[in-house]
Design a protein that fits this description.
Blueprint (H helix, E strand, L loop, with lengths): L14 E2 L10 H4 L12 E3 L11 H10 L5 E2 L3 E4 L6 H6 L3 H4 L2 E4 L5 E3 L4 E3 L1 H8 L10 E2 L6 H13 L9 H11 L6 H6 L3 E3 L4 E7 L6 E12 L2 E9 L20 E5 L2 H11 L3 E3 L20 E4 L5 H14 L4 E3 L9 H6 L4 H6 L2 E2 L8 H13 L1 H4 L8 H7 L7 E5 L6 H13 L5 E5 L4 H13 L10 H9 L3 E4 L7 H15 L3 E5 L14 H19 L2 E5 L21 H5 L2 E8 L7 E9 L6 E4 L1 E3 L4 E3 L8 E5 L5 E5 L13 E2 L17
Parallel strand pairs: 2-20, 13-14, 13-15, 15-16, 18-22, 18-23, 19-20, 19-21, 21-22
Antiparallel strand pairs: 1-2, 3-4, 4-5, 5-6, 6-7, 7-8, 9-10, 10-11, 11-12, 16-17, 23-24, 24-25, 26-27, 28-29, 28-30
Helix pairs in contact: 16-17, 19-20
Length: 684
């Protein structure tokens, strides 16, 4: 295998969070009821100790010209002759199109040879061109990537699976069709895509064949569970999702095909191909991620239609994926009542070809009129809850105030020293991550090992020190989360951090970045001796990144020094007012005596640009699980209103529970306080 670790380029290495992937993938364990489980490879993003700019498309072109390497400019990749193709293979390549079998990603510089299936980084390609490596042997040959254990398991499952139409009992075949919504999908379509059914697991089996050789490389099993009166699908992939790069339907694509429809589920591809006859491909990770390793396989298409689902999250994913694929060749099917996901459209008897013709172009000019925006405005008005974002399951009061976690926003979080900011924000981010929000953590204050330990304890809702026999079980489940860590520690340059964040958004489709904390980037900036000006520049850089990348950034900032008997306010945030002005949300972790009872921590939402609702709610720290929870009592709340003399008076709240206007606040209950004095403090 190609693992080229040269001392000259140690800065781009991706380090695994854990050791070798050892998760047990027995079918009974994988197909348990619950949310769809997609295993993600845990990797830490590179720690760049010196300012190293990422490679650009211009630099790649200049390097190829300087070394006399011909190339062709594509949509997302450059095509060039492959140095990893043997002489016998070169003789078989007669046309210029087939000889240009090396695809180099314009954004990352990573390459893939379609002939030898070798891949690597831009530095690896430079080493092979300049004779610093061993040519053909430098690389990970994707044809050899699956482990022997995976290959045996794949073959065993595939041999046990049978086509639906060959099931001995017609009732069982009909039940499977109803369970997966395949009542209108014909046997010819299932045969065309080589779909089988695994009776012991009651799962559909979708194969992953190597392009050209048709060698079986992996499988995806789709199980159906009855849950809350509906059908709940559970996915299992072999090999793990980090190595499962199956564009389902790729072997059926012809070299002359110039148009393709991308879907987020294999079932939708079946329905689309049967109804329209167009080439269709299903993304291996659905709407969660579009791995850049798949882009070379999509270079041949002049038009790509993305029909990923029927909700706002699918629509946002389609716009994000179109950026990678080159928006000028992409069209998007907008979700709506008359434009559901393809399988549902087929079952409802809708015209799928007409829906495809109504797809909107992903690319538009810099200036638009309301005519181009009116459909998006209608979509937001029709999907108010989805527009509000992902709601927190562990903090319902936070969801009631902020309404949800939305892309493209900047959240400022502050609190007194030692109050538990890192502990709270880790659970805050973990809550979202368990709901499928791809998260990148930048912890400059504590090590990744300690942070991962805190988050694992919060995930397991208990300390694992006394039950080490359960560590592997919880660690395997924790490893399934779409969670990544930057390996930065201590002072870092804002330029380096932003470059790493942009790389993570492109490669891993990160939706939420947590930076803990801003002060660790202050001393590294050489922009000005004025720390306030340096902080304003850093806040502006994060604000621009959040907007341009459609990614939520949560930024932890220490407060300025305040008296212990005073509450923190928005003005308490260190620096100028730019941080609170640029932020969409301002959260303050308060740790002092409340007006109505003994001292406890509570969270204050001081700013909410989405709809203006602000307020506070109490937090209770559980030392055994390192979690904050809402007290089971304390239902009535009080307003804190200042009179003309600036004194605090109490008044029963008559406003909407948990939410008030922008210039008022809610406070703890008037009833007896349920807390008892607790000297414990969360680790910082």
């Amino acid at each position: 295998m190609w693992v080229l670790l040269r001392s000259a380029y140690p800065l781009r290495i991706l380090l695994p969070l854990r050791g070798e992937w050892t998760s047990r993938r027995g079918l009974p364990r994988s197909l348990v009821p619950g949310p769809p489980r997609r295993r993600y490879r845990k990797e830490a993003l590179p720690a760049l100790e010196v300012p190293v700019l990422p490679v650009t498309a211009t630099e790649i072109r200049q390097y190829l010209r300087a070394h006399g390497i011909p190339f062709q400019d594509g949509h997302s990749c450059l095509r060039a002759p492959s140095p990893f193709v043997g002489a016998s293979q070169l003789k078989d390549q007669t046309s210029a199109t087939t000889s240009f079998s090396l695809f180099i990603n314009k954004t990352t510089g990573r390459f893939l040879c379609m002939t030898s299936l070798a891949e690597g980084s831009w530095e690896d390609f430079q080493a092979s061109v300049e004779g610093r490596g061993d040519g053909d042997r430098e690389g990970v040959l994707l044809s050899e990537a699956p482990e022997a254990e995976d290959s045996e398991e794949v073959r065993r499952i595939w041999d046990r699976a049978v086509p639906l139409w060959e099931l001995p009992e017609p009732e069982e075949a009909q039940l499977a069709r109803v369970m997966f919504g395949l009542t209108k999908v014909t046997d010819d379509t299932l045969r065309h895509f080589s779909v089988r059914y695994l009776r012991p697991a009651r799962s559909l089996v979708f194969p992953w064949f190597s392009p050209g050789s048709m060698r079986l490389r992996g499988l995806k099993l789709l199980g159906a569970e009855s849950q809350d009166g509906g059908v709940h699908y559970v996915e299992t992939t072999i090999p793990r999702p980090g190595a499962y790069h199956n564009l389902f339907g790729l072997p059926l694509i012809g070299r002359r095909d110039v148009e393709v429809v991308l879907t987020s589920r294999e079932l939708d591809s079946l329905a689309l191909n049967q109804s329209t006859g167009l080439p269709t491909l299903a993304l291996p990770r659905g709407t969660a991620c579009l791995p850049p390793a798949l882009l070379p396989y999509l270079e041949q298409f002049r038009r790509i239609v993305l029909w990923l689902g029927d909700d706002l999250r699918s629509w946002e994913a389609a716009k994000l994926f179109a950026r990678k694929l080159n928006p000028k060749r992409c069209s998007l099917v907008r979700p709506g009542d008359q434009q559901p996901r393809p399988l549902e459209a087929l079952n409802r008897g809708l015209n799928l070809s007409r829906i495809l013709r109504s797809a909107l172009p992903a690319w538009h000019r810099s200036i638009v009129s309301f005519r181009q925006l009116r459909e998006e405005v209608l979509g937001e008005l029709s999907n108010v809850e989805q527009v509000a974002g992902v709601r927190w399951s562990r903090f319902p009061d936070l969801s009631r105030l902020l309404k949800g976690h939305r892309k493209g926003e900047l959240t400022i979080f502050t609190g007194p020293t030692g109050s538990g900011k890192t502990t709270f924000i880790s659970e805050y981010a973990l809550d979202l991550c368990t709901q499928g929000v791809n998260t990148l953590w930048g912890s400059f204050e504590i090590s990744n090992v300690r942070l991962a330990r805190i988050m694992l304890t919060q995930f397991a809702l208990g300390r694992l020190e006394d039950q080490l026999d359960k560590y592997d079980e919880w660690a395997d489940r924790f490893e399934d989360l779409p969670l990544y860590f930057m390996t930065f520690h201590g002072q870092q340059s804002i330029r380096t951090v932003i470059d790493t964040m942009q790389h993570a958004v492109y490669v891993y489709d990160i939706c939420h970045v947590v930076i803990d904390n801003l002060q660790f980037m202050m001393g590294h900036e050489q922009l000005s001796t004025d720390r306030i000006a340096a902080q304003d520049y850093i806040v502006g850089a994060f604000r621009k990144f959040a907007t341009d990348s459609s990614c939520h950034v949560t930024l932890v900032i220490h407060p300025r020094k305040e008296d212990d008997d005073k509450e923190l306010q928005t003005a308490s945030i260190f620096g100028s007012a730019k941080a609170s002005q640029e932020a969409d949300n301002v959260l303050i972790l308060q740790d002092r005596k409340l007006v109505t009872g003994p001292g406890k921590r509570y969270l204050q939402v001081a700013k909410n640009r989405f709809d203006g609702d602000v307020g506070v709610f109490p937090l209770e720290f559980n030392k055994s699980s390192l979690t904050f929870s809402i007290p089971p009592k304390s239902k009535a709340r009080l307003k804190k209103i200042k009179d003309d003399n600036g004194l605090v008076v109490k008044k029963p709240s008559s406003s909407k529970k948990g939410a008030v206007s922008q210039n008022s606040e809610t406070y703890s209950s008037k009833a007896p306080n349920p807390y008892q004095p607790d000297p414990s403090k969360p680790s910082r």
